[in-house]
Amino acid sequence: MIPRQSSRESATRWHRTFSGHRNQVREARCFVRAHLPNHPDAELIVSELATNAVEHTRTGDAGGTFTATIKQQPDGTIYMEIEDQGGPTMFGEPTPNREGGRGLHLVSALTLAWGVKGDATGRTVWVELPRSDA
User: Which SUPFAM superfamilies does this entry report, sorted A to Z (predicted)?
Assistant: First the structure.
C-alpha cells in the first residue's frame, strides 16, 4: 500500500498522490471537495479523470499511482490535473449499447478548456474551471 502523500505547495496549490485502486477515486473526490468546496463540478470532473486513469492506464496495474493537482489561478479560475502512468493512446468510441465512452464529453461541457499532455509512458489530463463566485 502506498502511503498517503499530500502537500500544499502554496496558499493556492495542492497535490496528492493516490494508489491506482478504484476506491482511491472516492478519495480523490474528497481531496478536491476539501480544497474546492464551492466548485461542485470539480468533484465530478476529478472522478471522471481519476476513473479513466485507473481503468485505462498502467495506473491500475499493481503498484500504480495517479496524482491530482489543484491550482487556483490569480484570476480566480482553477487549473486541475490528473497525472497517470501512461497506457494506450486510443480508446473505444461511445456506442448506444456501451456504458462508457462519454465522460470526456462531460468534462468538455463543464470546463473552460481541457487537454492532454504526455505519451504512452505517462500522461496528464488537465482542465480549467471557471471562477466560483460563491
Answer: ATPase domain of HSP90 chaperone/DNA topoisomerase II/histidine kinase (SSF55874)
pTM over 0.85: no
Beta-bridge partners for 99: none
- Statement: residue 3 has pLDDT above 90: no
Q: Are 65 and 17 in contact (CB under 8 A)?
A: yes
Rounded CA-CA distance 31/96 in Å is: 33
pLDDT tens for residues 44-101? 999 999 999 999 899 999 999 999 999 999 998 999 999 999 987 655 555 555 555 5
Residue 69 CA to residue 51 CA, distance in Å, equals 15
Cell (9 digits) for 128: 480549467
Going by their DSSP bridges, the two strands 113-119 and 122-129 should be labelled as: antiparallel
In a domain, 134, yes or no: no
Assess if residue 15 is contained within a domain: yes
> 126 near 79, Cβ under 8 Å?
yes
Q: Which CATH number fits the domain that encloses residue 108?
A: 3.30.565.10
The domain total for the chain is 1
Q: Which residues pair with 82 in a beta bridge?
A: 68, 125
Structural domain including 66 reads: 5-129
